[in-house]
Structure formats: C-alpha cells, structure tokens
Amino acid sequence: xxxxxxxxxxxxxxxxxxxxxxxxxxxxxxxxxxxxxxxxxxxxxxxxxxxxxxxxxxxxxxxxxxxxxxxxxxxxxxxxxxxxxxxxxxxxxxxxxxxxxxxxxxxxxxxxxxxxxxxxxxxxxxxxxxxxxxxxxxxxxxxxxxxxxxxxxxxxxxxxxxxxxxxxxxxxxxxxxxxxxxxxxxxxxxxxxxxxxxxxxxxxxxxxxxxxx
Length: 213
Hints:
By secondary structure, the protein is mainly α. It has nine helices and no strands. The mean pLDDT is 91.
C-alpha cells in the first residue's frame, strides 16, 4: 500500500476517533442529565480536539502526491500546537488532581488528553508539510489560546464557573491566574518555534531524512 494512502487512512481514522469521543461525551452527559452545553464547549480540550479532528479528516482527504495547499498546512500546524498544549497542560497541571472526573466516559480521557495529542504531533513528524511556515507567522496561532483565556475569565466572572483550576481566581486571586497564563504562553511560544522549525524542505527533519536515505 502506498505511503500516501496509509497517511490518508490513519488521519481519517484518528480524526473520526477524536470527533466520536466528543459525541460520546455529549451523549453520555445528556443521558445522565449532566450536560451543560455552554460549559462543555468552554473546555480548551474540547475545542482543540474538535478543531484537530476536522483538520485531520480534511488533511486526509486533501493530501496528494504533490503535498498540501499552504492554507491546510497552516491549519495542521495550528492543530498540532493546540493539542500539544492540551497534552502538556493536562499532564503537568491536571493529571495529578485526585477526585476529579475529567470525562464522563473514562476512555475518552485517554483519547482526548493523550492519544489525540500524541497522534497529531506524530503526524507532524511523520508527514511534515513541505511548505515553510515562518516562526512569525506561526505566532498568530497563539491568538486562539490567548482569546480563550480572556473568554474563560469573562465568562467565569459571570457564571462563577471556570473550566480549569489554574483559571479560577478564587484560590490564588488574579495574580495566580496571570502567573499560570504567562507560564503557559511562554511554553506555547516555544512549541510554536518547534512546530515551525520542522516545516519546509530545508528543515532539520527533512535533512535528517535525506541523510538516512
């Protein structure tokens, strides 16, 4: 089977896995009478996986022997960043919390916080875009996480509900929220640099492949 066909298949398969996990979460919460759609859609994990799932499906269908269009490569880079943030933040700040139910269906936690981030980062390494994405352009990807923090704080102030403990100003005040947000923003900027570094025919990854060949 040609390599391009395999890439198409696993992108479509994991795209469907991520999206179906979100659908199962919705259905389960609704069945248990615990669904609050506004809260559900306010989780960065949900938004990032929703975006990445569609991007994986789209990139699977749009991939050709000539590569992919620039706009799709840009979307893939953004999806890679957002799920990398999801995986890192969950592993470092949330996974150790006891007595917290992160998902209504236990295996969805594995899919949304571990499997999907690993898959999309792995996809960026296995099938990187041939188109160069400049670091300056990649920094625009940070607009969404920054807007998300602002949205969460404004909505949380109104509803008294925050999607994540590090966004809740109650325990530590807004100083703690700002400190956590700055730390995540700096980490995200480093991730942007790494993601963009691996793009283009002249990237370190491409050079390593050519030497191995």
